[in-house]
Amino acid sequence: MNLLLLRSDDFLDPQHVRLCGQRLDHINEILGSQANDALRVGLINGLCGTARLLSINSTEATLHVTLDTPPPAPLPLTVVLALPRPKMLRRILKNTAEFGIKQLHLINSYKVEKSYWQTPALKPETCKAYFEEGLIQAKDTVMPELHLHKRFKPFVEDHLPTIIDGQQAFVAHPYNAEPMPSPSTEKRVIVIGPEGGFTDYEIDLLQQQGVKTISMGQRIYRVENALTRLTCQLSATPHG
Amino acid sequence: MNLLLLRSDDFLDPQHVRLCGQRLDHINEILGSQANDALRVGLINGLCGTARLLSINSTEATLHVTLDTPPPAPLPLTVVLALPRPKMLRRILKNTAEFGIKQLHLINSYKVEKSYWQTPALKPETCKAYFEEGLIQAKDTVMPELHLHKRFKPFVEDHLPTIIDGQQAFVAHPYNAEPMPSPSTEKRVIVIGPEGGFTDYEIDLLQQQGVKTISMGQRIYRVENALTRLTCQLSATPHG
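Predict the joint structure of the above. Result:
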């Protein structure tokens, strides 16, 4: 655990926190921490800092908390992704938070299997748990926002223009594509298709909204690897 | 299946191939191909091309094969990686082949659990199967080479100098690190530590061999994501 994530209702007063349940078990069983030990903490959607363990037993721990450091810079990239199969979705939700992506739009596409929309991984509380895992890994506190769009054409025509809002927008597509642009600290939008790619019709609709096709090279990557690669290739954060 | 991988012993003569078993089942059940259909093929460690199905039934298929295209360019990056836990190792083996890494050295480190070296995923035939999955995904034919080094110090002192051989070599490490260099088409070596990182002693030994510490930024990435990010950030292939 690289960061102990705190919620506002954990606080007894602005500097003291009481923990029980899963996080307490982790501190006891995995970290093996004892009174006076220091832990790296962060408040969900708030600052990071340190905590000193005042007391700990098998039912609760109390901590003295100092929150004084901003979380890592967000990735200036909005991701629009054709809903992947559930197993891959789970890893992608974790990665979204781990990479600092703060806006994730999961969309339908011709090659997305209808059953994927029924996965329990899309339940808000399950998504949140995956996002928390990614935040803890990356020592981040800022929850990504997840948006679901079950119809492709209305999404592209009615929502995408508002999302793009003057930013550069790209779709990874092997045909008639421009070379990969350089990483930028400017806000950008990346659209990533399903396994098998978008149909020509879908690419046309995206292009009508000003989305530019870019090539990832000769190799075809699995969707989660495409996402990881594109976050590096398109976006730079001020502090790396 | 983006590519049907052929082995030299599949060939009846230089232009004809007979398939049975798993690959035949895939053609029948997943692709649903019929006589006269075209398939994208590649010969392991050889050229890519196309094949026309001459005949197919439930026990065998015969194909007319034309091999005329080189596989995608390899990634000019040798990867030295502290052996990850087995579940992650399996994905990393696939990714190694998918990304075009051709030299993978798995090494020991203080924070590598001894039991990891016993995983069935390290059996040569199992590794080969994961590599094949990655090659098929990326439409590549060139098998990565896997090297196992169960002792850290002898690896760093006796093998690493030969691997580096005048190339730039980096280790991802958050402390006293230089900023990430730009991607290059030059051959490079990247060393990636275990979860929890290398010890100071290990970093010292690496630095004595000319390995430079570079920072991945404020976030801490899971090992498989660190590998994917570093392949993008350090290496460029001539055709993207």
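The longest strand of chain B covers residues 48-56.
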